[in-house]
Every structure is written in structure tokens, then in C-alpha cells.
Amino acid sequence: MLGTDEARAKRVASGLKAQDHFPGLAATDVPHLYDWSSVGKGLVVQVGGQRGVAIELARRFGEVKLLIQDRADVKNAKARLPAELKDRIDFQPHALLDKQDVEADVYLFHIIFQTVPGKSSLPILRAQIPALRPGVKIVIMEIVAPEPGKIPLWRERELRYVLPCVDWLFFLLSLCVYSDDRNL
After folding, report:
1. Which of 184, 7, 31, 10 is nearest to 110 (CA)?
2. Which domains, ranges and CATH numbers included, belong to the chain?
3. What is the pLDDT of residue 131?
4. What is the mean pLDDT of the segment spanning 128-144?
């Protein structure tokens, strides 16, 4: 996967940064897409990186602790955090297919499954099982386009103009990491 190819990982990271220009995908949107206040002083593990999401959550929810699990080079990422968040955001080297060894209240997957090969999606989720206990949540935030005719026409048209750009972005990403789109 990405951890073995630094050049691909950098291309994917820069491609994912482009998602900040699409409503509902940006790191600034994530705090509005789930009841994060229900986590309280709990721990959110963001599996697969994307430091910007953790920064947004830490800024808006003052008690939550965040752990970003990503490739081995995340060890030095803490130095790039804003000073006021360094005590609430931590980093841990962790491959997506490694068994989860951190007990948390929420495991967040933000635009992860679109950037890995399809056959890896289920094993990634299964890797979380060792750390699960009653009440723990797995939050998956991915791009899902509704089938035509399932939502109001104006909204569908809006999505059909934006999502082709997003689809193109993820098509390019898939060329980097041999991924495929998922159907519900």
C-alpha cells in the first residue's frame, strides 16, 4: 500500500488536499457531519492520517483527544501542529491493515476506502475488531453519489456537476494506488 511508496503517498496526499474545495469533503466540514460533542473527553483515532481533520476537530471540540494513525513518518508530524493543540493531538505509526491496538471511543475513516484497493477495505475494518468494545463507534466518511432520481432534481444536478470532478480526482488517485470505486 502507500506506506511502501513514498512518491505515491505524496501524490495521494496532495490529491486529497484538493478535496477541501468540495462541499462536504473539506476538513472544515467534518466537525458538522457527526455529533462529535457526544465524544466529550474521549479519544478519537483517525485511522489513515489527514492531520487537517484532527486539527479542525480539536479546535471545535475543546475536550476531545485525537490520535492520528498513519504511515511511519508521522512521528515528526507533531512539530507541525499549532502550539495550542499539541497536548490534544498525537500521532502513531500504523499501517491500515495492522490490528488496532488502541482503545478509543471513535475510529474515524475519512476518505480512506476510496484510496485503497477494494480487496483491502474489509480487512482494514476487521483490523479494528481487537480494540472494539460496547459503545465504540466507527465513523466512515466517504463519497457516495445517490442514484439518479433519488433526491430533488436541483440537488442532483448540483452533485452531478461537482461529483464528476471528485470522481476524476479519485480516478487519478486510483491510478496511484490501484483502487476502485465502491457501490452501496
Report:
1. 31
2. 2-177 (3.40.50.150)
3. 96
4. 91
Higher-pLDDT residue of 45 and 171 is 45
> Residues 142, 170: contact at Cβ < 8 Å?
no
pLDDT in tens, 33-68: 899 999 999 999 999 877 789 999 999 999 999 999
Cα–Cα–Cα angle for 72, 89, 24, nearest 5°?
Answer: 90
Which long-range contacts (C-beta less than 8 Å, at least 24 apart) are formed by 11-19? 11/173, 11/176, 12/115, 12/173, 12/176, 12/177, 13/49, 15/169, 15/172, 15/173, 15/176, 16/50, 16/111, 16/115, 16/173, 18/169, 19/111, 19/166, 19/169
| Residue 84 burial (CB count, 10 A) | 9
How far is residue 18's CA from residue 80's CA, in Å, rounded to a whole number? 20
Task: Give CA–CA dist 165/161, Å, rounded.
Answer: 7
Q: Does the structure show a pLDDT above 50 at 179?
A: no
Stated as kind and residue range, the H or E segment containing 70 is strand 65-70
At 68 the pLDDT is 94
Of 158, 153, 146, 149, which is closest to residue 184 (Cα–Cα)?
Answer: 146
